[in-house]
């Protein structure tokens, strides 16, 4: 694996936040030119906004554009009030992103729900499309009667190539030619590189999406470059692989030990069992290289990507690099699809009063 | 309602068999020119084949072409062996229809599943598409490796306009332009005009289909004329309206009385209760106009379409002309979708040995 | 069929309202002793309350007790605000019924959802049970921590005999012995005798229920007599048979003709086509026996039950007496299950503030 | 945590095979008294049979009885022929287990499907119950007509306590008292301690089951001791936690390094990237304690349970010990439920000829 391949490989995450984190872990602050990162707390929810400038594309491994995330990790499953607040914050952020790209209230929109509706953790796109308020047919069939406080919106779930035999990009492209929307919104389930983000974060971006990009096939990107109109993508990481889980855990383990040693000044062997208080680990909790070596040997001092590569080599050939999803995926998908479809409806139809 | 509208209205049935029956009930045999009707019994199942010539189109109210039906009324729900036999007969008939239109084994096919997969009696198309064996992506991505005993097939369920905001025809047309198949197979759930056919018959035709044609909207037909390639349609009547149920029953009632009188020579009033033996009624069981009047008054002597129109006038304005489906629709749809998808796979991939 | 059997047969409706209507159609007002009927309009919804006294049981063909209905026919599918109003009215009426039987706020409840969750129009019970707030395990496991503003509630969907091999009554009885609730609430999908009520009415009663009682099997009733505790039943008619549809329509037809003649003083033959205005028919619209005979012959003058019996004899032996449900059953069941489960939760937990 | 608690904790696996493996890893061969282990290969599938004698119960942490497993890891998803072979082997092994406990062909059976049918990886029990052939109602209602080549079988899915408010054991116990079966078969989804077994193994045992035993609540066991009749349990591990994934991977990592060093005699640092050939690791691949320390520090020389405990302490307090299931859980559950229900039907009805 040469350096270029390594770089590509590093970018496998579907989440810009993770890509930037990777980079931050590897380069010093000074080299952050071309990446603007902002963090905010809105109604108790963490919102981030990353702008990647063209000159930083190669370094970050993400296309130039704006990447926003909404952290929903504090929301309890099926907790109606919390979900409503998160939905409102999501709608606001999405509206901001649309305005950032000068989308007007009269611009027409096509919503595309990617993914396979028979595979629960991959069904986010089709589930959202089911709940999007569509109006294009009313504009077409009854142009004089239609309530123009609603934007002209259409929506389709084009299925997955393995079920249709057709490249998803091709379905979208032919549809865009026919429907001629002013902009596209694509909704998809993503892969995360961290167990902590699965079903806990919504990403919005104006850079489009590359369907199934992580899987190794060269797929055409669904973006402004390929389609000629702005393409917004909404995604939630719903799966994570065993490599990420293990890599995360080793990282936590080192920080846990580092933090405990700092606090308690005692050797690891005596630490079992640790206290069971909730911990938040930061990079500063990482112990010294000597301690890392003591506790985790050479593995303890591997760089992030080296560590992942090593684990991948052990798991992948034996078919053990399972891509997994939380046991409660059914209810979590319901909540996420409701949140996103309601928020999307609000952002797309800003002149409509929703109850 | 002028005569022309009446004619249109008469043709509301999605089934050619019903359209021809209507006509047969109204016109004498001599006028049957341009309609060829054949009936066969294959492995215990009734198969019909109707050829409508261009000169008969106006009279029948159906497009010129071939209409085949497979009567599955003898099959018991979830009876695996009977379903397998019916599937094989269906595959054979469909193959004959493809050959009738000179479809070659190397011709490429796009399968379109019409209907709404969230409305059980309307989900036939999407359910079949889910089980169709698709290969087009393999021909595209790995042309040298693909097993060419499989035909190049792709498949998509484009949803319904109320959910997508896009005319179904437009989705199909844009896809046909992109995928460029040699022929199209469209699968859809139909409306029946008779309670006896609901979920009990499969129609195959080479004349295409007009999505939602019965509902009153002008929709573009999905056919060879509009798309430039042969369009085969496979349909099952899964719903029936209250008008048809009532009209059927009044008809049965008259024939029942006629038959009983013939057999037992006694007056109706004494016939209650009738024997409960299974009866098959034919047009010859219809009693004389005088007896019809005696038992059912003026209604007893209405022409079929007059009767339907009268009933419709009573039910429709009050919202009582319910479109209904059998209570067991879930299991019946499963059986039908399995039968049709397996049969379609056999007809599309004749060189493949299915177990 | 002797008179006693006839009487039994007449009572096949699951709805007391229909049973009383049948009776009202047959007997004069004076003989209504023992039946108290009240009608009310609450927030735009028609609510009825029928009390059947023990002395009227034989005449009405319904057990003694209170039968309340909520007419939801004005609600549009998926119309959130209307559904919320109806849910609140339902919760109030159910609370009144519980109080009518002296159910205290601390009495424990077992909710039973009858029906087959794989048969959409029969899934009401299981769907409601899924959304009932249960607390009994918290009372058992953490008696000191449980929020006692919630009643102690448990819930189970015992399946149907054809799937379990066990009489539903037996499952319920064994569970009641174990769980020892103070009262039972049973939720079930019902059969209607009228096309106008399918999915349009909720019945609440304190007389329990006889599972599948209409189908001809002798099944043990789930009621206070058999179980020793009050048994409330909540039901919605979700299916109707072809006999009812035809009988209804013939009835509408006669009234339609009668009304039209009165209004327009012209003969039937000239009435085609009638005006398409929405009509509400009452018994006073029935034309004279002579006119009935003129339009519908002997059938026009049959008593309701004679007419149904005649139609049944014609349809049933040929397998054409389909039990049907509206095409939109999937979405209508969703709405009904949400309405009933939310209303039930409010009625069972009156001290809880629901958002 | 004292030694006794540690012992309990070690036995958290639902799989006897894993419990025995744990033990084998800790104790020498000589101490294996009371545990008989047999392995066989039938039609290409690995079958194991473990007999735990009463004297070994404490050591193994599993109840005395027979534990059989069928390894289905070689089966490709939806591969019909392979699934059929596995189903037949499963049916044979289950029949052997029934005979081992002297179950007669005329003994009556109650099948219980544990789990939550709305949580895909927990729905195995309800899914199997849906496909079990039940006959008890026919024996009850039509004793003279019933086809006695079928065993008297009933089946129920009692739901989960969080949905019903009733201890699952209580539902089962009350049902057993009522139905009085001669033996019980309980089907449930299990938790695995190894990523390699998820959805890849079926366990059959005559020792019953403890519902949700791993979750920490004291639940009554569903077994012969509590119910007075033989209780057979069929289970598939469908979930695994992040602790197990990480622990497994660290183990693989050490063995991978050990094996590579042996084969290639070079230092680890130079091993990146390793070859990507499929590897099977055995305990002999574990490198020396010194090398383990070199590569993985103190963690490399932790005992299995110490390692799991350490990882658990890091992940659990932060909510990161996700219980996960493979992304393809929907299709894998379908295959497993079909395999088990068909196999169970064959084992329960040995005199019936299945096609």
From TrEMBL, chains A, B, C, D:
GO terms for biological process: proteolysis; spore germination. Signal peptide: none annotated. Keywords: Hydrolase, Protease, Zymogen. InterPro entries: Pept_HybD-like_dom_sf, Peptidase_A25. Its EC number is 3.4.24.78. It is an enzyme of class 3 (hydrolase). GO terms for molecular function: peptidase activity. It holds the Pfam family Peptidase_A25. The keyword Protease applies. NCBIfam families: GPR. HAMAP family: Germination_prot. This is GPR endopeptidase.
């Amino acid at each position: 694996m040469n350096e270029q391949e390594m770089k590509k490989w590093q970018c496998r995450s579907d989440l810009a936040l993770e890509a930037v984190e990777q980079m931050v872990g590897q380069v010093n602050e000074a080299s952050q030119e071309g990446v603007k990162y902002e963090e905010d707390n809105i109604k108790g929810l963490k919102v981030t906004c990353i702008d990647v400038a063209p000159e930083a594309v190669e370094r970050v491994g993400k296309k130039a554009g704006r990447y926003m995330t909404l952290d929903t990790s504090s929301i309890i499953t099926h907790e109606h009030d919390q979900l409503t607040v998160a939905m409102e914050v999501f709608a606001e952020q999405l509206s901001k992103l649309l305005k950032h790209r000068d989308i007007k209230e009269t611009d027409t929109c096509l919503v595309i729900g990617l993914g396979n509706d028979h595979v629960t953790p991959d069904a986010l796109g089709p589930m959202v499309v089911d709940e999007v308020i569509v109006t294009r047919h009313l504009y077409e069939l009854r142009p004089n009667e239609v309530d123009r406080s609603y934007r002209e919106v259409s929506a389709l779930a084009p299925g997955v190539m393995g079920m249709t035999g057709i490249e998803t990009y091709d379905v979208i492209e032919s549809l865009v030619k026919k429907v001629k929307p002013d902009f596209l919104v694509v909704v998809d389930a993503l892969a995360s590189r961290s167990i902590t983000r699965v079903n806990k974060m919504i990403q919005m971006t104006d850079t489009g999406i590359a369907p199934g990009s992580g899987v190794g096939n060269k797929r055409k990107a669904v973006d402004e470059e390929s389609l000629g109109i702005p393409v917004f993508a909404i995604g939630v990481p719903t799966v994570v692989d065993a490599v990420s889980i293990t890599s995360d855990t080793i990282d936590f383990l080192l920080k846990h030990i580092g933090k405990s040693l700092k606090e308690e000044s005692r050797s690891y062997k005596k630490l079992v069992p640790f206290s069971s208080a909730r911990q938040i680990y930061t990079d500063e909790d990482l112990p010294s290289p000597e301690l890392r070596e003591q506790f985790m040997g050479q593995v303890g001092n591997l760089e992030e990507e080296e560590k992942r590569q090593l684990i991948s080599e052990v798991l992948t050939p034996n078919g053990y690099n399972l891509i997994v999803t939380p046991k409660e995926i059914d209810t979590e998908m319901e909540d996420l699809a409701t949140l996103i479809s309601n928020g999307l409806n609000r952002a797309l139809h800003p002149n409509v009063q929703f109850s």
